[in-house]
Amino acid sequence: MRLYCFPFVGAPAEMYLPLEAHLPETVELCALELPGHGARSREPLTRDVTALGRTVADVVSRDAAGRPFAFFGHCAGALLAYETACALSAAHLPGPVLLAVSALVPPHRYAPHMAATVCRPTGVNMALVAEMIRDARRCGVAMAAISKAEAVAYSTHTPAYPRPLTCPVTVMGGSDDSVFPPDRLDGWAAHTTAGLKAFRLYPGRHLYLLDHWRQLADDLAEDLDALPHDARPVQF
Asked: What positions does the domain Thioesterase TesA-like occupy (predicted)?
């Protein structure tokens, strides 16, 4: 099975290398290199999250080639993973067998939450963004300065949530996350007909995952292994 991983704003695909090191051989990690990030740093950054979701959906559909796959994303990456799953559904294409979202409120809460915490009348709270960059660099993630345009694109996005997804959802978060506090993460069950697979909190702040790759890999592998037999990871 392939696990497509969506990086957060400003992060390169290589941020997921530590996760790959701890996953079982039955799970193939495919980290997405988004426009304007990492090896694609010279390309224009994202300004339309919905359109990017449609583009990624097309790429994933061709790349998976009928093989079962799952999505994992953190923060803005989780938002893009959700939009990609919605785009696959709208196009009547096979979707993920599991959507694992980390540090993201459910779609119906996203716009109000961002307006109250991250966005301000004068613009995006870049001080908060700078704090996240410091945390990432502390943990060895080579991040470029986050473009204000990209931060605005994600922070002001309004998910459409046209219809519930048909895959189970795993929700993850940091116990001390001030951007998406744990008590704001509930509500994802309303966006899937398959229910929640798990709800997990890990010690740490918004970028808790950078300190918990092994546990994160173990938990994702457990969730994938618990899927129906025809959707489980298989050796290839």
From this structure: 4-224
